[in-house]
Design brief:
The structure is a homodimer. By secondary structure, chain A is mainly alpha-helical. Chain A has 2 domains: 67 residues, Winged helix-like DNA-binding domain superfamily/Winged helix DNA-binding domain (Arc Repressor Mutant, subunit A); 139 residues, Up-down Bundle (Four Helix Bundle (Hemerythrin (Met), subunit A)), CATH 1.20.120. In chain A, 67% of the residues lie in helices and 4% in strands. Chain A contains 11 helices and 3 strands; from the N terminus they run αβααββαααααααα. A 3-stranded antiparallel β-sheet of chain A has the order 1-3-2. In chain A, a hairpin with a 3-residue loop joins strand 2 and strand 3. The longest helix of chain A has 26 residues. Chain A is elongated. The two termini of chain A are 29 Å apart. Chains A and B meet through helix 3, helix 5 and helix 8 of A and helix 3, helix 5 and helix 8 of B. Chain A binds a DNA duplex through helix 3.
Chain lengths: 235, 235
DNA sequence: AGCCAATTAAGTATGACTTTTACATCACAG
DNA sequence: CTGTGATGTAAAAGTCATACTTAATTGGCT
């Protein structure tokens, strides 16, 4: 379990080592890396390293300049919306900060998405929504946090995709990660907030009847609740 | 002006050709590309093509599999938050749809960002804000759209960065692109909506005095106005 | 100060070799 | 005759080593 599985290609393995090192701050901004050294360190050819560098460069994590080397860029310039960067940061040292950033983003996006979903959701999506809301009710008591989480993530994914906005839809994974992170940090025996569960049911209903304003307002209550919860467990 | 400047490296030039072709839909999802064919087509070595493919893969535009080739992935899987993907799509065929998506995203994010800015903005940022709001007032009449745009973009950039949330801050370029796109599509002799100008001044003031609720509400009026404007000029 | 040359590290090209895997072929059992 | 499964082959990406090119930094020389 020391090395990541060798199933993937070489460049993927190198990337999965170097990326997290950078996002975690182990290789601080301004550091200069040389391709030859990296090739030596990972015992791969320079070709492989170059491909990794290209990907890291496309994430704005590094900048490559002739005669000087590969420089780690300052944090503010990183592509923080890249799923892999998000994943690495969530797995790394400043997971709390990252979780907070993402929760704020979620609190901005989800209410608007819910409002749009009320206008655009297909009957099938409405059905899924109520189904998952019911699932949340059913699993909200008695230490079934894992089962609850599955429904919660599915619920929010449907909302985001039913909004009909591709930018919102692509945040489904991020929201899922946030929800997972929150569950993992919660006390194991604490059941979800009953008020939140009720709100989800009401959102599903509002979307079904096409009440955009109500769907938005209710979802805003959910997300502000999530932020308040974050403040309580803040590190 | 036929070819993009040859100042950058080879892989950048190939990327700037292949990327837009994919995002524009000229190379529809499901299409398989072979690396040696691409190498032949662009008259570069396979090494260069491989690096391009890696970057395209990191944008989730393509997937590379052995024995089959490089497959263009379906639109829903693209990394639509990647700045280059956004740029390519804005430059391409479905620019209207993209502009609409981004405007909706903006309408979700900016009000929340403004609320946070009211709580976190430094005195310096408040000064910048009023300065640019004043600039907008000064350039709002008499076909000075370009000068107006500069202040508008700067204003919103300050709001987003002053929010203190890195995810919001990284959307400044996107918002700038949206504002630019809107200006370019407007009739050349139409001055900006006076109501919008007033709202910007009021937002700057609300942020300065730390009235988060008011800053959020005013900004929401700005963004809903922007969306309404989009509906009028909808293609 | 300003210019030129040397040096350094990334960028590119090429060719040989490895690994994975889709596909077709064939054998066998139902 | 058909469907299932084992097997072999070939195609394309993946990897490596090496030689060469290009740009930019550094430092020395005028």
């Amino acid at each position: 379990m020391e090395n990541e599985g060798q199933g993937k290609g070489l460049h993927a393995r190198v990337l999965e080592t170097l990326g997290p090192e950078i996002t975690a701050g182990d290789v601080p901004p301004g550091t200069v890396l040389r391709t030859d050294e990296l090739a030596q360190r990972f015992d791969v050819s320079r070709t492989v390293i170059r491909e990794v560098i290209r990907v890291l460069e496309s994430m704005q994590l590094v900048a490559s300049r002739r005669r000087v080397g590969v420089t780690v860029r300052p944090t503010e310039e990183w592509n923080v919306y890249d799923p892999r960067v998000i994943g690495w940061r969530l797995a790394g040292r400043d997971r709390p900060r990252q979780l907070r950033s993402l929760t704020v983003l979620r609190s901005a996006v989800e209410p608007v998405a819910a409002g749009l979903a009320a206008a655009h959701a297909t009957p099938g999506q409405c059905a899924e929504l109520t189904e998952h809301a019911m699932g949340m009710v059913a699993t909200s008591r008695g230490q079934q946090l894992d089962a609850y989480l599955v429904h919660d993530m599915a619920f929010h994914r449907v909302i985001l995709t039913a909004s009909g906005n591709e930018m919102f839809a692509r945040l489904a994974d991020v929201v899922a990660a946030v929800l997972t992170g929150r569950t993992q940090h919660q006390v194991m025996f604490a059941d979800p907030d009953p008020a939140a569960v009720t709100l989800h049911v009401q959102v599903a209903e509002a979307v079904r009847v096409g009440d955009a304003a109500r769907a938005e307002s209710l979802t805003r209550q959910i997300t502000t609740g999530a932020m308040a919860e974050l403040d309580v467990l803040a590190p």
